[in-house]
Amino acid sequence: MDITLLSPEAAADNGTMSPGRVLGAYLAEARSECLRYLRAPGFMLPITLFPGMFYLVFGVLMARSGGADAPRYLLASYASFGVMSPGLFGFGVSLAMERDGGLLTLKRALPMPPGAYLLGKMLMAMAAAGFVVLLLLALSRLAHVALSPGQAAALLATGVLGVLPFCALGMFVGTLIKGQGAPGLLNLIYLPMSFLSGLWFPLPMLPRALQQAAPMWPSFHLDRLALAAVGMRQDALLPHVLVLLGFTVAFLLLAARRLRRFG
Q1: What pTM does this model have?
Q2: Between the CA of residue 175 and those of 36, 39, 166, 252, 254, what are the distances in Å?
């Protein structure tokens, strides 16, 4: 890839870039980001295969003893579990490492829109989340989970959009900690949050205090939307959407404030 530092003349031209050039810059950065992670199997394989493996074991092979609705319920829960990972690790770990390596400083010197770098990461996370949901939908056929096309599309949309709050959280964590410590800290967030939200076990199986505290986690609200998408819940969806939206905006603002300090 040809990398050219921004000259004063280019900087002046960058302020008056045509809409077509701006769009091209965003698309090029998104394509570069997606290709970079597709070529990193150490990142892509765990975030895509682990949810599929868990669903295959617990949702397909072992769910028969839980009743006819168990595979459908676990499909929604493991979809929520799976889409959290691209947001947290795709943003958090990579941002922390690239910040340590000086890539953020270099990106600011390049003739590109300032938001293209983060948008590229966001689109990569959304694409990875979509792949995770599609994989789980394919495995659900083995468990004879009958979803209508509308339900399958709703679950896919929930996963693709539901990754955004975790992108914001991962982005914030990536501004707080050095690259070597980011995976450990994010796992300390990712795994307990999944458990406490009822993604591994139904909430009624958890102690009452944990059940009452579950709504504080964004993964709980994402799981409720996923369950509604597959026809397992009929309660109002707007409160869950608003909580996730507020969580996303709050952590994006916190992360943006931190990133300005590195400018």
Answers
A1: 0.84
A2: 21, 24, 14, 11, 9
